[in-house]
Design brief:
By secondary structure, this protein is mostly beta strands. The protein has one domain. It is built from two helices and 33 strands. The strands form eight sheets. Strands 2, 28, 29, 30, 31 and 32 form a six-stranded antiparallel β-sheet that branches. It has a five-stranded antiparallel β-sheet with strand order 1-5-4-3-33, with no helix packed on it. A hairpin with a 6-residue loop joins strand 7 and strand 8.
Length: 468
């Protein structure tokens, strides 16, 4: 018999697990959906089936993946949601209880399961070629049917993806190719990185290998017109530490931050140049581009990783880890400097994907202006920030609102001419809706709200797939 979930900040309120799978063929729309908005908004996020072992501390990164698909076309909207039926999910559903430790911690794994089956598929949802993939960086992509959300199993792209695959691949606007990497690619806690290029038709084009200076939990990377940057930041994976009952991933502030720079499509190995600087951190890169001999990375950055403990298990305060938009500049000689862009407390920065790797102007974020709100208390605002001038165009959904990641959908040919879509939970009414905002007039607020049939729990990343 399933047991109650423990009292944990990421298992109540906005994040309380939602066990139902639903279909709603005709959703209530407040306002008017643009007739030209035709396609599907996808959202992935952690939604645990069962509580962890009583001695195992839950983490928001650990829940089972659940995909929401909200289809917009002809001014109407429908939705469905489905769990990603990974091997982990199916084994635990059959057992009626949790079988894996949090983050696959072997100390709490049931003897009946293999560590290789730990896949939450909960972090991102990414369309490429004719496919749709649920991503979690410890495993190959999990293929999902774009229409039914049926789980189809691992996609290895012609056996070129042998293990971990980033939750943040990049689509190159030059040719539609997908650039990706896998960290700890030769086993948990190893320094090996595998770099993959998948062409616009979904066929493997290139594989290379490199080593990072230490086993960082590398979550994102940068792609410009000519280069790649691999950020090795001091959030470190240690299996030895995990077997001692300590955190498998922990912040080690005695290590430097290091950036590996390689030519796009490069061969790895000795072709990578590593540059070191003082400890710094970012989970997410908004965009990156070449600027003469320099490489610019615009990030949601902080001086220390949030949500992740030190090696002794102590957690940081939110005020020490709040993300703000920052510009990291890596000089041709390896010199690193940081410049502020905007002071809002932000979470998931996105761009008009047509300018990926190019000089650009607009970053779109979910954010809060409340200095002590914290991640548990949510992000109540959507903002468009001009990264050159710092000008901000923002709309707040009010006290008690929780905004997810904004996704940009093009309308016209110019950068930033389009729509922003974001899931919002209003905690005061306990209602969730998909907000549609004009990306050029964010402060005007939503032109439409698509009301969900039930609360949508907090999640991670989103994507748009245009109607075919």
């Amino acid at each position: 018999m399933p047991q109650p979930f423990p009292d944990h900040p990421y298992l109540r309120g906005y994040y309380r697990p939602f066990p139902a799978e639903m279909e709603a063929p005709d959703l209530v729309v407040e306002g008017t959906l643009p007739e030209s908005l035709a396609g599907t908004f996808y959202r992935n996020g952690p939604n645990p089936q069962f509580p962890p072992h009583p001695q195992d501390r839950y983490h928001v990164f650990d829940g089972d993946g659940m995909i929401y698909a909200i289809r917009l076309e002809g001014g109407r909207a429908s939705m469905r949601n489905r769990f990603v039926r990974t091997r982990k999910f199916e084994l635990e559903r059959a057992a009626g209880r949790r079988l894996f430790g949090v983050f696959g911690n072997p100390r709490f794994n049931d003897p009946s399961v293999s560590p290789m089956d730990y896949n939450t598929a909960n972090t991102h949802i990414w369309p490429h070629a004719d496919g749709l993939y649920a991503l979690m960086e410890g495993c190959p992509p999990t293929a999902i049917d774009p229409e039914t959300l049926e789980t189809k199993g691992y996609e290895t792209f012609g056996n070129t993806v042998s293990g971990p695959f980033t939750a943040h691949p990049k689509t190159d606007p030059a040719d539609g190719a997908l650039h990706a990497f896998g960290v700890s690619a030769k086993g948990p806690g190893t320094t090996a990185i595998r770099y993959n290029v998948i062409d616009a038709n979904g066929a493997p084009r290139h594989v290379a290998w490199l080593e990072q200076p230490y086993a960082s939990m590398m979550h994102d990377f940068a792609l410009t017109e000519t280069k790649l940057v691999f950020p090795c930041l001091p959030l470190v994976i240690s299996m030895a530490r995990a077997l001692e009952g300590k955190p498998i991933a922990a912040w080690e502030d005695d290590r430097p931050a290091a950036f590996g720079v390689m030519a796009k499509g490069g061969e790895g190995g000795a072709s990578v140049r590593w540059f070191e600087t003082d400890p710094t951190f970012a989970f997410h890169i908004a965009n990156s581009f070449d600027d003469g001999q320099d490489i610019v990375l615009d990030v949601a950055g902080s001086k220390r990783a949030p949500l992740m403990p030190s090696a002794d298990g102590t957690l940081p305060r939110h005020e020490d880890t709040r993300f703000t938009l920052r510009r990291w500049r890596i000089g041709g000689n390896g010199h690193f400097r940081e410049e502020p862009i905007d002071g809002l407390d932000v979470q998931f920065p996105r761009i008009d994907d047509r300018v990926q790797g190019r000089r650009y102007r607009k970053a779109f974020v979910n954010a809060t202006a409340r200095p002590t709100a914290g991640r548990i208390d949510g992000f109540d605002m959507i903002a468009a920030v001009d990264v050159e001038t710092g000008a901000r165009d923002a709309f707040s959904f009010g006290e008690g609102a929780y905004c997810g990641e904004p996704v940009f959908v093009p309308r016209g040919p110019a950068e930033g001419d389009g729509w922003l879509l974001a899931l919002v939970w209003d905690s005061q009414s306990n209602e969730s809706f998909l907000a549609v905002l004009d990306a050029t007039r964010v402060a005007d607020g939503p032109v439409a709200k698509v009301h969900m049939p039930a609360r949508v729990p907090g999640g991670f990343h989103c994507h748009w797939r245009a109607a075919r």
